[in-house]
Amino acid sequence: MSRTAIISDIHSNYHALYAVMSDAFEQEHCTEVACLGDIVGYNAYPGTCVDYIRQLNCPVVKGNHDAEVVAPMYEKMNDMAREAMEWTVRQLTDEQLQWLARLQYQRIVRPTGTGANSFTIVHSTLDQPKAWNYIINANDAAGNFNKQFSQLCFHGHTHIPKIYHWDGRHAEEDYEAKHRLVMNGYAELQPIPGHKYFVNVGSVGQPRDNDPRACYAIFDSDANMVLMKRVPYDIAGAQHAILEAGLPSFLAERLERGC
Fold first, then answer.
1. Phi and psi, residue 164, nearest 5°
2. Least crowded by CB within 10 Å, which of 47, 52, 161, 257?
């Protein structure tokens, strides 16, 4: 049995990361983890989150904030994000920065177990993984499927959980799964043979879909099933840590709103 917890956009929020991983291991009985990047940025525990992901020894890909903290450019960042990034750089050791620098931009993940289906992970897109493009709708997702050679590809970057489906001709968003996630806090996807799926797993550390709960996905390779799930965490604790660190107060306020 192989159940992989797939997490993205942790953004230095250790309170959320701890809640998600506790849920994954204790409630969902996950046996493996894959991380889609943006471990750092915005919140108050960059070093702690990097070290936690490192000790998991799991497949990880690089996010734009991970790349930015290694080689700061600040070209596409607003003043608030830039201030948080400058603070983050000062918190990380050379060893942690070197580890982030070595991360790949995309990977094939092969879960353990006989006959387990492989899947792809990337932070933004497969067609231009270093450009950090945002997939906002099905039209944006269509170009990604041309570069997707596994049935499932998991990504993050927008902080908004969504599932895009390709039947060989058209790309469509799975609005039914989106509705179930909103109403129930979880949604299941049973992939159709011969079709492809580009799954945005949402954000652990800074959700932006008006639901403040952390979000992640689980891939059960034996059942060939994807589960999207929301997890509550100690938002007040994360907010307090942001303010204590002297980071912009907006970063604390937005966690409570989930936007």
1. -110, 140
2. 257
- Quick count: other Cβ atoms within 10 Å of Cβ 160? 21
Whether 240 and 175 have beta carbons less than 8 Å apart is answered as no
112 CB burial (10 A radius; 0-12, 13-18, 19+): exposed
Q: Would you state the pLDDT for residue 57?
A: 96
Q: Are 67 and 105 in contact (CB under 8 A)?
A: no
**Can you tell me the distance from the alpha carbon of 214 to that of 235, in angstroms, rounded to the nearest whole number?**
10
Token pair for residue 255? 């966690």
Question: Which tokens hold the place of 112?
Answer: 């353990």
Kindly state the helix (H) or strand (E) to which residue 110 belongs, with its residue range: none
Phi and psi (nearest 5°) for 155? -145, 180
* DSSP H helical ranges for the chain: 14-22, 46-56, 64-70, 79-91, 94-101, 138-145, 175-184, 235-244, 249-257
**What's the rounded Cα separation, in Å, for the pair 76 and 29?**
39
Asked whether residue 71 carries a pLDDT value surpassing 90, the answer given is no
Q: Is the pTM of this model over 0.90?
A: yes
- Give the pLDDT score at 1: 66
> Which residue type occupies 184?
N
| Long-range own/partner contacts, residues 140-149 (CB < 8 A, 24 or more apart) | 141/166, 141/171, 141/173, 141/198, 142/166, 142/170, 142/171, 144/198, 145/171, 145/196, 145/198, 148/120, 148/196, 148/198, 149/120
Note the pLDDT tens digit of each residue in 148-157.
999 999 999 9
